[in-house]
UniProtKB/TrEMBL annotation, chains A, B:
Its main location: membrane. The lineage of its organism: Eukaryota, Metazoa, Chordata, Craniata, Vertebrata. Belongs to the anoctamin family. The keyword Membrane applies. It is found in: Membrane. GO terms for cellular component: plasma membrane. The chain crosses the membrane at residues 47-74, 124-143, 164-191, 211-232, 253-270, 374-396, 424-448, 522-551. It is a multi-pass membrane protein. This is Anoctamin. Keywords: Membrane, Transmembrane, Transmembrane helix.
């Protein structure tokens, strides 16, 4: 970097880091990882190296995601199902969305939502989801190689593995899991239709407001869960700090991810699945009907929710928690420090750098930073099938996040004690877990949340001419208004002479023998959905395994370097013994022995031997 | 072992191995693995260590498999579906199994087959299949630990990893895959009903004969494929012997396993699936109807096929290829050697031990032994859901196999050159691959080959009183004899007045609107089957991951040992330098330096240093 030259000319290390790393001017440069490690130690060095690799690798999926989105925009006009939804001529009368208060409505009134839905729910999304599984595998492999390289160049190869914790975790696991289940249950109850009238009239606004409220709840609960995780870990009485750290990470990851992802899981897989059908809705606690998604499907809601949580979390967390609060706290702290100094009654000595540094925020470890990023990784991979723009959002955030974190470490907090570690530890396992889980969630999102499978089934099995025309009619079932139970039919209706209304489900029509039971189409489409899940999951898993197998863990150049160093060590040992002996025989002739490799690249053991022998 | 005492008393190494290892008398003892490694080198040492661990770990599944089988035997009389099949009173007339020649038949005539089928197709099998996935994960983990231990105690920790081969393999992969596909196709064509009359009358005998024939084909083709694999690898021009070996292993494994497993896959997943229905059978090449399984389902056929191939392969391979052929060849070889000696025209010197040894069979590497065992591992794991006795068969075989291989290595072949290697190499990857794949095959066998899911669906969805009674009627569809196409109805029938016959499928009856199309039950059961696959696969994968995560790769005692040794090395280096210097100063006072650990347990590096410094 030529940085050592600057250091020699009297620029302080911290200032150099600030210049070369912790400001937005160098946003497009690689981070000076070696310098970071020198100043902050291996742990923080690894964090930023990881963040760098992650951000860099986010570029291809961001670009591809934008293309997928653009593909949606350009083909939306050719999309038959949304055209049919918007077609006023079809004049489809839909059943009311709530009891008594709601009226019949026309399908064409949700035209814009159907078009918006198509942007994220088209064939390209499926390919993108498969691409993302591969990408996750590639990312993990790439990081492994990078980590191996750093381990070597930072001379950590001889560091010992610590034993992995194992036993007590299952005791508290149940507690954590209990909290998560409670959270999902509360969410379902909380989101049950409390005010049908208001909701029916301003559905979209209410949904969005609900999502924003929910997002705030997520942010507040995150802090609460952090405290719970600490408390649970303290109960376990782990023996060492490392053990404490690992257990805490594991638990808080579980709680926080449940917190962040529960609403998404609810919308993707539960909302509207158990709502029943017109004339036989499912009621909970007597009065409350189970909530349903807006008519164009749950995918668009999942999409909104995901973008809200991602954007909101990032904006609020970055700006409020990481910028605003420290900014507010700093003057208070400075003032208090000044008061303390006065109260001490000592002579007024000039304030040194270490006095100033002491007024900074204390360093709280690198775990919260990892946690934030890992949860973002979850958003990017777990539900990418519903929202191809997620990688682009994440990329945007991370480019800022790196410099923000850097500035925080350099200027806002006290310089942390350097912690030595040989890799990113348990975080890698968590990343692997998320990547594997994401294959399953994406398979289910495509099958059950999007309408990809029903459309394909219609096209290849039920369509008369092999096109999509008629899909909308096919996907709606008939309901005879005579079958409304007492008091649930619309009390005052603008539409007159309605005998049949339609609802989105595959059930037998009222004139068949088994009226309102699931139709043959329902079961065959369900089978197709499940078959797609199996196909997708196994294809993605196979491809990921192939990637992991084809990319060697140790880069070829490093492998050769290691071999060479081993040989040099042996040669050195052979030659050196002679030299020691000759040196001992003629003690006056003191010669300086050069080690066989430069200090920076030297394997640990050579340095040791060199030091002891000379 | 006290073996070194024997060695000291003049017993030869080979004789000792023969006494302590290569005979059936010591069958119940652990193998003297250290001794084997000393005499034959690491490669063969690892093979027998692995075989020992595998055999030992086969004991629990063998016992459990026998229990599952016994459970089947004891509950077969309470099993409603097989009772109903055997019930003459129901008087169910089944449709003929072939065109024109076959007659209608009564369901009760396949009573015994239905009862036999239940032995392997009951609820316990599902649990056993899940257990086996866990077992496979546990086995791999256990072997990793054992390998790590051996690596340490055999002083292989400092051995270099070789780079994994990668590039050319995809060129030939297509060739290998092509052969496999061709094999499956040939199998389908070959097994199409060539002689319907004979087959209908003596169905069971013909099936069994067919399977035995098939098994012989498998055995012969195995040798052919071995040659193909060598040829393909030679085309690739690998650079080193190790590379050649690895590539060859990979290809021959693919070809040989395809060969061994193709008939099983055919029976489990293809046979009878595309046979059509009465009145609309699927014909290939104009005349040939697709083959169907016997009426109680394909599972019993899979079961017979598996047991035949396993038993046959083991008996024939062990006895013919490994015992008989060498036994026949030996006198021929001896005679030729004697002739050669005479022809040489040298003086008749007395025959030394090395002369005798030279007449033995040449050593052909350890790969064929591994291959045999890995394919057995495939039989044990891939289709265990259909045949819980497979582990017991494998155990029985292996107990003999160990001693047979041992005798072969000690007495039948020339002593092999010791090959140093640090683990079992690519075989471990192949084992992992098989274990992962087995989860999928077992899920599909339970769902699609056994009748577990349809029975459960009947019990919980269609049964009027929650019991299984009525299942047989429910699982059979109606066919009106008027719908037989010309010339396919039975030409001369013993049964008179048949208007309806039954066949095993879920299709709408002739009197419904959509006669003979798949019924609602078909689709819902298909959906349930697919859902079961997803559930089973993810459950088994999750449990396996949990096992792999909970069992640390390095045993705790070994980890502590390694730490201690590292410390000792450091201490030794510190102290030793002083000693070298003092020794150099007073050369007369020659002292013998003892290494800080006994030679056997010493890490590589310490020995090196010790040798060079003293």
């Amino acid at each position: 970097y030529g940085l050592y030259g600057l250091l020699a000319r009297g620029v302080t290390f911290a200032h150099l880091l600030y210049e070369e790393w912790a400001n937005y001017g160098v946003m497009c440069k690689y981070q000076p990882v070696d310098l970071i490690r020198k100043y902050f130690g291996e742990q923080i060095g690894f964090y930023f190296a990881w963040l760098g690799v992650y951000t860099q690798l986010l570029i291809p999926p961001s670009v591809l995601g934008i293309f997928v989105f653009l593909y949606g925009i350009f083909t939306v006009d050719d999309n038959v199902p949304s055209q049919e939804t918007c077609d006023n001529g079809l004049n489809i009368t839909m059943c009311p969305l709530c009891d008594a208060v709601c009226d019949y409505w026309h399908l064409s009134s949700v035209c814009s939502q159907a078009r918006a839905s198509y942007l994220f729910d088209n064939g390209a999304t499926v390919l993108f989801a498969i691409f993302m599984s591969l990408w996750a595998a590639l990312f993990l492999e790439h990081w492994k190689r990078r980590q191996m390289y750093l381990k070597h160049s930072w001379d950590l190869t001889s560091m010992e593995d610590e034993e992995v914790f194992m036993m007590c975790i299952f005791v508290t696991f149940s507690a954590v899991f209990g909290v998560a289940v409670y959270r999902i249950c509360m969410l379902s109850v909380w989101s049950m239709n409390p005010d049908p009238e208001a909701k029916a009239s301003v559905r979209m606004t209410v949904t969005t407001t609900g999502i924003i409220l929910n997002m705030l709840v997520v942010l507040v609960l995150e802090e609460v869960y952090g405290a719970i995780a600490v408390w649970l870990t303290e109960i376990e009485l782990p023996k060492t700090t490392e053990e404490f750290e690992e257990r805490l990470i594991f638990k808080s990851f579980f709680l926080k991810s449940m917190n962040a992802f529960a609403p998404l899981f609810y919308v993707a897989f539960f909302k509207g699945r158990f709502a029943g059908r017109p004339g036989d809705y499912v009621y909970i606690f007597g009065d409350y009907r189970m909530e349903e998604c807006a008519p164009p499907g749950c995918l668009i809601e999942l999409c909104i929710q995901l973008s809200m949580i991602m954007l909101g979390k990032q904006l609020i967390q970055n700006n409020v928690f990481e910028v605003l609060i420290p900014y507010v706290r700093r003057p208070i702290r400075n003032k208090r420090a000044a008061e303390d100094a006065e109260n001490d009654g000592e002579e007024q000595r000039p304030r040194q750098q270490f006095d100033k540094d002491f007024t900074l925020e204390p360093y709280e470890g690198v775990s919260p930073e990892y946690m934030e990023m890992i949860i973002q990784y979850g958003f990017v991979t777990l539900f990418v099938a519903s929202f191809p723009l997620a990688p682009a959002f994440a990329l945007l955030n991370n480019v800022i996040e790196i410099r923000l974190d850097a500035a925080k470490f350099v200027t806002e907090v006290r310089r942390p004690d350097a912690v030595r570690c040989k890799d990113i530890g348990i975080w890698f396992n968590i990343l692997c877990g998320i990547s594997k889980f994401s294959v399953i969630t994406n398979a289910f999102v495509i099958s059950f949340t999007s309408e990809f499978v029903p459309r394909m089934m219609f096209k290849f099995m039920y369509s008369v001419n092999g096109t999509m025309s008629g899909y909308t009619q096919h996907s709606l079932s008939y309901f005879s208004v005579n079958n409304f139970p007492n008091g649930t039919a619309p009390s005052s209706s603008l539409s007159t002479g309605v005998t049949m209304c339609r609802y989105k489900d595959y059930r037998d029509p009222p004139w068949e023998k088994d009226a309102y039971t699931f139709s043959k189409e329902y079961w065959s489409i369900l089978a197709a959905k499940l078959a797609f899940v199996i196909f997708f999951q196994n294809l993605a898993m196979f491809l990921s395994m192939l990637v992991a197998w084809m990319v060697p863990d140790v880069p070829r150049s490093l492998r050769e370097q290691l071999k060479k160093e081993n040989m040099m060590l042996m040669e050195f040992l052979v030659n050196h013994d002679e030299e020691v002996l000759s040196k001992a025989r003629s003690p006056k002739q003191s010669m300086i022995l050069c080690p066989p490799c430069t200090l920076k690249k030297c394997p640990h053991i050579v340095v040791y031997i060199w030091v002891f022998l000379t």
